[in-house]
Write a structure and sequence with these properties.
alpha+beta, APC4_long_dom, about 30% helix, APC4, Methylamine Dehydrogenase, Chain H, eleven-stranded mixed beta sheet, five-stranded mixed beta sheet
C-alpha cells in the first residue's frame, strides 16, 4: 500500500489548546475525573496547578516549599501522581513527599474561589526521604478476572473469609459519640475549618478500601508506601546512574512491580520486583495500613490543635487579666507586695476593712472605685469573657476530645486485630508493644478529659469571680451613702450568695502549684491549670494542682501527664508498633533485570496486562471459553503466536508489555509475570515479541500506552473494579514530513514470536518477518470499525498537532494518555513556551452523528 496516495483521517476532538509560560516538569491526567495537574519550576519555587480539562477552570494551585537548591540559585524540579481513585495528589520535590486531598483543595475552608492557592501548611501528610525523589507511581489492587482466572481453593477461602469479616470493620460511627469530627462536619454548619481537617472529608482509606501502594523512586532506592502513607519496605535500584524519571507499572494483584530507567549512552534496563506478600497478606496489610492512616491522622490533628487551643485559651482570659492588672500596681504602691494576688484577695474577703489590713483595704477601695471597674464595663467584659470561654470549650471538644476518642477506638481496633486475625504476628514482643500503645492512649484520653473538666470548671470559677467583683465594687461604692440611695440598691441587687464566697475561698485556699506561677493572673488566682496541661514540655500535673473542693471529682488517683506529653508518648508507641506488621516480611528485595537492545534516543514505555490461565475442562466452562474466543474485543490479553517459534504455553495470568521505539519502528516485548502451573518465584522461561513498522518518513518521538484497567473509581469500600480490561491501545507521537502527529492503534491483533527467555532481549533486526506489522493511518472517510483486518497490517487513528512557532529541532515533545477517561495530551516545549493540546480520544471531530440525527428528525 502506498503511504502517500491517500490523505489521513483527522481523528479525535480537540478539548483545549493552550500556551503556557515556562517548562512543564510534571503532567498527569486524573484517572477518575476531568482534571489535570501539571507543575512548573523555576529557580525560586515550584508550583503545581490543578485545572479542569473541559472548561479549563483553575481549581487550585499548590505552592511547594523552597528547597535548599532553590535558595542557592539552582534549578529544581518536581514530580506528581494521582491516587487510583483520583481523590489524592502526591507531589514530590527534592526529598519532600506530600499528599494533598482534592476536595479540600477545590473547597478551601475559607470559602475562597477555585483560583485560590494552597501553601505547605495545608498538606494532609508529608515526609522526607534520604535521597531526592525522581518519580512517583500509585497503584491499587484489582479484582480477579471473572472467567479468565481460576482461583485456587486458598484464594477462594480468603475472599470468603474477608467478605464476612469486612462487615465488622469501619464501625466507628456506631460506637463513638456524635460529633462533627467523626461524621465529616455534618453536624454544625459553622464548622467549616474543622470539616476541612476531618479524616472523612479528606477520604482517608478504610479497612475495606482496596489496598493501594505508592512507589517513591529515589536515586538509590524504591520505597513502597501502603495507601500512600504507611512505609512498608525499601528495595534497591539496580540502575543508580539514572537521574531522569522512572516509569513504573504494577500487576493487577500488586504481586509484580515493573520499573524502567533510562541511562544515557547505555542499554535500557527493565527491573521486575516480585512482592508475593502483597497478595498472600493483602487483607491484613490492607486493614493495618488503613488503621495506620487513621491513627496518624488523629495524631496529626491533635498536634495541630493543642497550640490552637492554647492560644484560644489565653486570648479568652486576656480581658479579665487586663482588668486585674492595675491591682498589682496599687498593691505595690501601698507596700502590699509580699503575698500572691490570690492570697491578698482571700485576706480581703475574710478580713475586709480592719486596722491590720488598712493598706490592703485602701488599695482595694481605690481599685474598685476606679474607672475601669465601672459596672457597665464589667458587664460588657463578662459577656465577652463568657462567650470566649464557651468557644474554647467547644473548640476543645471538637479538636481534642473527639480526635482522642477516635484515636482510642482505632488503637483498640488495632489491638484486637493483632490478637485475633489469623495471619498477623502474635509474638510476645509485638503483643507487649500493642498493649503499651493501648495504655498510653488511655493515659492521653484521661489527660484530655481532665483538660475538659478544668475548662468547664474554669467557666464556673470565672462566673463566681466576676460576680464577686461586681458585688465587692458595689459594696465599696455604697459605703457611706444614704440608706435609700441608688448605690445601696445596686449593692443589694448585685450581692452574691454565701455559697459563691465559700467556693471562691476554697479555690483561693488551694496551694498554688509552681507551674502556675508563669501563667496568667486569672489562672493563678483561680488555680486553673489549663495552660499547664497544654504545655509541650514533658511535665506532669500533680494532684495538688487539682482542686479538692466541692466541684472536683475525687475518682482520679495518681498523677496524669500533660496533653502534649501524652500525645508524644502515643506517637512514639505508634512508630514502634508499626515497624514490621508482618512477621515474614522480607528485609530486602532483589529485582529481575532485563536489558533491552541499545539505540540512540529510544523511547520506552511499559504496561501490564491481564491474561488467562490454561483452559481445561476442570477450570473453565466450555460455553464461556467459546464466547470469549469468538469475541472480537476480549477483556484480557490473548496473544497470537506464529507457528514455528519457540514452543511455549502462552496462557498466563499477568503480563508486562514493553514498548521500545526508535526511528520508525516500535518493538513490543510481552513478558509473562505469573503462571498458574509454576511457582511464583520461578521466572517465565519465555517471552513474546513483535515489530510495528511505521511509514519510512516518520520519526517516533514518544510512546505511551492507552489503557483502561477497569479499576479507576471514585467509590470506596470493596469496589476495586470489574477485573476486566477496557480499551487497550498504544499511543505514538511521531513527526511525519515535518508535521507532529498522534497515532493511536490496537496491537492485540499483532502476530507474536515466542523466544526462550534471556536477560538480554532480541534485537528487532533478528525477529521473524511474519511478526512485522505495517502500521497505516486511516484514510479520509474511513471507519476503523468497518476496516477489514489485513494480515501483517494495523490501521491507526491519527491527528495532526499544532506546535509553537519555534524551531522543531529545539522542541521537546511528550505524549500523555489516560485510558480510563479517554483523554490524551501533547506538550511541546521550546524557548520558554510550552504548547499544550488536550484531546478527546473517544470522539472524532468530524463525526456524522449530527447529520444522522437531522435525518431522523426529518423522517419523524
Amino acid at each position: 500500500m502506498d503511504e502517500h496516495i491517500t490523505t489521513k483521517k483527522q481523528c479525535f476532538t480537540s478539548i483545549q489548546k493552550k500556551k503556557l509560560l515556562g517548562a512543564i516538569d510534571s503532567f498527569q491526567l486524573c484517572p477518575s475525573m476531568d482534571l489535570v495537574v501539571f507543575g512548573t519550576s523555576s529557580t525560586s519555587a515550584s508550583l503545581q496547578n490543578l485545572f479542569r480539562t473541559v472548561s479549563w477552570q483553575k481549581v487550585a494551585s499548590i505552592n511547594l516549599e523552597e528547597s535548599e537548591k532553590a535558595s542557592n540559585g539552582e534549578s529544581t524540579s518536581s514530580t506528581v501522581c494521582w491516587s487510583p481513585n483520583g481523590r489524592w495528589i502526591a507531589v514530590a520535590k527534592d526529598s519532600q513527599v506530600s499528599l494533598y486531598g482534592v476536595e479540600p483543595l477545590a473547597n478551601p475552608p475559607t470559602g475562597t474561589s477555585f483560583s485560590g492557592s494552597s501553601g505547605p501548611s495545608e498538606k494532609n501528610h508529608s515526609w522526607r526521604t534520604q535521597n531526592p525523589v525522581i518519580s512517583l507511581y500509585w497503584a491499587h489492587v484489582g479484582r480477579p478476572h471473572a472467567t479468565a482466572w481460576k482461583l485456587s481453593l486458598e484464594e477462594e477461602e480468603e475472599q470468603t473469609y474477608w467478605s464476612y469479616q469486612q462487615y465488622f470493620l469501619d464501625k466507628s460511627l456506631l460506637f463513638l459519640p456524635p460529633s462533627a469530627y467523626h461524621q465529616g462536619g455534618e453536624e454544625g454548619h459553622n464548622d467549616s475549618q474543622m470539616q476541612h481537617e476531618t479524616p472523612t472529608s479528606t477520604a482517608l482509606p478504610e479497612c475495606k478500601t482496596p489496598l493501594s501502594v505508592l512507589c517513591v523512586s529515589t536515586r538509590e532506592t524504591i520505597e513502597f508506601y501502603l495507601h500512600g502513607r504507611y512505609p512498608l519496605i525499601k528495595a534497591p535500584r539496580m540502575v543508580v546512574d539514572s537521574t531522569k524519571g522512572v516509569n513504573a507499572v504494577a500487576s493487577n494483584d500488586l504481586t509484580y512491580f515493573v520499573f524502567f530507567s533510562q541511562v544515557p549512552h547505555a542499554p535500557s534496563t527493565v527491573s521486575i520486583y516480585h512482592l508475593p506478600f502483597l497478595k498472600t497478606e493483602r487483607y491484613p496489610l490492607q486493614a493495618i495500613a488503613s488503621l495506620h492512616s487513621s491513627i496518624e491522622s488523629h495524631l496529626g490533628t491533635l498536634k495541630q490543635s493543642i497550640p490552637d487551643v492554647m492560644n484560644a485559651w489565653k486570648s479568652s482570659l486576656k480581658p479579665l487579666d487586663t482588668k486585674i492588672q492595675p491591682l498589682i500596681r496599687l498593691l505595690q504602691n501601698y507596700g502590699v507586695d509580699n503575698k500572691s494576688l490570690g492570697e491578698v484577695l482571700k485576706q480581703f474577703i475574710l478580713i475586709g476593712h480592719t486596722s491590720e489590713s488598712s493598706s490592703l483595704a485602701n488599695a482595694m477601695d481605690q481599685f474598685f472605685t476606679s474607672v475601669q471597674m465601672n459596672d457597665q464595663l464589667l458587664q460588657r467584659m463578662i459577656r465577652t469573657l463568657y462567650g470566649a470561654l464557651g468557644n474554647v470549650e467547644s473548640q476543645t471538644r471538637r479538636s481534642l476530645l473527639s480526635p482522642v476518642q477516635a484515636l482510642v477506638y482505632q488503637i483498640q481496633e488495632l489491638s484486637g486485630f493483632v490478637k485475633f486475625y489469623r495471619k498477623t504476628t502474635t509474638t510476645d514482643s509485638n503483643s507487649i508493644g500493642v498493649q503499651d500503645l493501648v495504655d498510653r492512649s488511655y493515659s492521653l484520653l484521661i489527660s484530655v478529659e481532665l483538660l475538659m473538666k478544668s475548662i468547664i470548671e474554669s467557666r464556673y470559677r470565672v462566673r463566681d469571680f466576676c460576680g464577686y467583683l461586681r458585688h465587692a465594687g458595689s459594696e465599696i461604692k455604697a459605703r457611706g451613702t444614704a440608706p435609700q440611695s441608688v448605690q445601696r440598691e445596686n449593692a443589694k441587687k448585685r450581692r452574691v450568695p454565701q455559697a459563691v464566697i465559700e467556693r471562691l475561698l476554697a479555690v483561693m485556699n488551694t496551694k498554688v502549684d509552681i507551674s502556675l506561677q508563669d501563667e496568667s493572673l486569672t489562672e493563678q488566682i483561680l488555680s486553673i491549670p489549663v495552660s499547664t496541661m497544654l504545655k509541650e514540655s514533658p511535665s506532669f500535673m500533680s494532684n495538688e494542682t487539682r482542686n479538692k473542693g466541692v466541684s472536683s471529682p475525687k475518682s482520679v488517683i495518681g498523677d496524669s501527664a500533660t496533653v502534649a506529653y501524652a500525645c508524644n508518648q502515643v506517637s512514639e508507641a505508634v512508630k514502634s508498633v508499626f515497624v514490621n506488621p508482618i512477621a515474614n516480611l522480607p528485609e530486602s528485595i532483589v529485582p529481575q533485570d532485563i536489558t533491552l537492545p541499545q539505540f540512540e534516543d529510544a523511547s520506552v514505555a511499559i504496561h501490564t496486562r491481564i491474561g488467562k490461565e490454561p483452559s481445561d475442562d476442570e477450570s473453565f466452562d466450555e460455553d464461556e471459553l467459546e464466547e470469549y474466543e469468538e469475541a472480537s474485543d476480549k477483556s484480557y490479553f490473548c496473544p497470537q503466536v506464529v507457528d514455528g517459534s519457540y514452543s511455549a504455553n502462552t496462557d498466563c495470568r499477568q503480563w508486562t508489555i514493553v514498548s521500545q521505539a526508535h526511528d520508525n519502528i516500535i518493538q513490543l516485548y510481552a513478558i509473562p509475570l505469573q503462571r498458574s502451573n509454576e511457582s511464583e518465584d520461578t521466572f517465565a522461561p519465555f517471552y513474546l515479541t513483535t515489530s510495528l513498522l511505521f511509514p519510512s518518513s516518520a520519526s517516533i518521538t514518544d510512546t505511551a500506552f492507552y489503557s483502561d484497567d477497569g479499576k479507576s473509581s471514585l467509590s470506596s469500600g470493596n469496589d476495586s473494579g470489574t477485573g476486566k480490561e477496557g480499551r487497550q491501545k498504544l499511543g505514538v507521537l511521531l513527526r511525519d514530513t515535518s508535521q507532529l502527529q498522534v497515532w493511536l492503534l490496537s496491537y492485540d491483533s499483532a502476530q507474536w514470536q515466542a523466544l526462550p527467555f534471556k536477560s538480554t532481549l532480541i534485537h528487532p533486526s533478528d525477529i521473524n518477518s511474519a511478526c512485522v506489522c505495517q502500521v497505516t493511518g486511516l484514510a479520509e472517510g474511513a471507519d476503523e470499525d468497518e476496516m477489514e483486518v489485513q494480515e501483517s497490517a494495523i490501521f491507526a487513528q491519527t491527528r495532526n498537532i499544532e506546535e509553537s512557532d519555534s524551531s522543531e529541532t529545539e522542541a521537546t515533545n511528550q505524549l500523555w494518555l489516560c485510558g480510563s477517561r479517554g483523554v490524551g495530551g501533547v506538550t511541546s516545549a521550546s524557548d520558554g513556551v510550552t504548547s499544550l493540546e488536550l484531546l478527546d480520544l473517544e470522539e472524532d471531530e468530524f463525526d456524522d452523528e449530527d447529520d444522522d440525527d437531522d435525518e431522523f428528525e426529518e423522517d419523524d
